[in-house]
Structure formats: structure tokens, C-alpha cells
Amino acid sequence: MKFSLYLVMFFLLLNCFATAQSLIRDSCKKATTKDPKLKYDFCVKSLEENPQSKTAKSLEGLVFVSTKNAVSKTTSLKGMVDKILKEDKYEVERPLLDCLELYTEAIDSLNQSLDTVKSRDYKTATMLMSAAMDAPGSCETKFTKRKKAVKSPFTKENDVLFYMVLIPIAFTSMLDMK
């Protein structure tokens, strides 16, 4: 009797994960056809790596998960800036301070977008997410568009962040079309 109960629970759990994986793959596929900048493999991988995505039952659930992923990445970048500033080893402080401000604003925008998604105000959510998506490029510009250009220590991470924010934007746009 116990064995059959465990077996049923196992199959229910397996079905839940398979459904979530299918939702992720289908949603990423649709999103990449609508936005060619979004990379399918990156979309799927970034969501499948997050255990919260396995509980998503809808596209809106994936918006929450992907937005939280972007918040987490932005927070990580902000921490990197803080660390570099505290070590006081970087030759130019101004772009670091600018990036710190940009990341802080991006986190605020992404968190606000979660509230607007909850209220199904998808246009405002997309606008807020788009504002956050400007942070990585603007941060890079702070290093390169100086009288004496300096190499950004965040180029790779900013590229990843750009795509991480692009995912919830694409998903939210899909919700707005429903």
C-alpha cells in the first residue's frame, strides 16, 4: 500500500516537472520568434536552472521567475561594484558609482514591475522592465565614453543581465497580447 502511494506521488511530481519544462520550452520558443535578440538556449537554461520555475504553471508564473532571476543578477552586479569600490583598486571611481546607481534603479524598476504584473498592468510592467534593461548598456557606456576610455570590469555580466531582463520583457509582451 505504501509503495503504491509513493509511486503515485512520484508520477505526480514527475508530471509537474515535465509540465513546467514544457511550459518553459514552449514559452521561450514563442518569445524568441517574437524577439530575435532573445536566445532560445539562454532562455531555457536560465529558467530551468531556477528551482522556482519548476512550480510555474503559467506564462505569468514564468514572468515572475524570470524577473526575480534578473533582480538576482542585478543585485549580484551591484555587489561586485560595492566590492571593487571598497577595495579601492580601480583606477576610475566615477563609472563605478554611476553603475551602482544604475543597478540600484534597475532593481527598483524590476521589483515595481512585479507589482504591476500582479495587477495585470502589462504595459507598465514592460515599460519598467525596459528601463531596467537600459542599465547594463548604460553602465558599459560610463566606462567607454570617457575622455580616456577605461575597460569595464562588468562587460560579460552586463551582457548576461541584458538577456536576463529581455526574457521577462518578452514574456510580459506575450501576456499583453492575450
UniProtKB/TrEMBL annotation:
Residues 19-171 form the Pectinesterase inhibitor domain. It comes from Arabidopsis thaliana. The gene is MQD22.7. Coiled coil: none annotated. The keyword Membrane applies. This is Plant invertase/pectin methylesterase inhibitor superfamily protein. GO terms for cellular component: extracellular region. Belongs to the PMEI family. InterPro entries: Invertase/methylesterase_inhib, Pectinesterase_inhib_dom, Pla_a_1-like.
